[in-house]
Amino acid sequence: xxxxxxxxxxxxxxGGSLRLSCAASGLTFSRYAxxxxxxxxxxxxxxxxxxxxxxxxxxxxxxxxxxFTISRDNxxxxxxxxxxSLKPEDTATYFCAAADYGTTTGPYNYWGQGTxxxxxx
Length: 121
Description:
Layout: E1 3-7, E2 10-13, E3 18-25, E4 32-39, E5 46-51, E6 58-60, E7 68-73, E8 78-83, E9 92-100, E10 110-111, E11 115-120
Parallel strand pairs: 2-11
Antiparallel strand pairs: 1-3, 3-8, 4-5, 4-9, 5-6, 7-8, 9-10, 9-11
């Protein structure tokens, strides 16, 4: 059974940093693209970062460019989202997702349960 589990969320002051992790099991991790999404109450889900299955192409939303970095460690079956210079508007539940032989656009068929990130001013 495919499972994605996010961790690393928490409460942080504006300007601080967090690193989110996405641990995968039940799939051949190296053949899946990874995407990071976020959703705040009352807002639509937003794709913030993605990495194709080869690990050679990246996508970042304009709102996070220069602040967030997506990476993966296939040996550990884990993907990461390094978040620096955090802003209150980054507050959301963050989800990781996986796409079989996917590009940065997906299609994303598997989703984690999410981890909460709260940035205080």
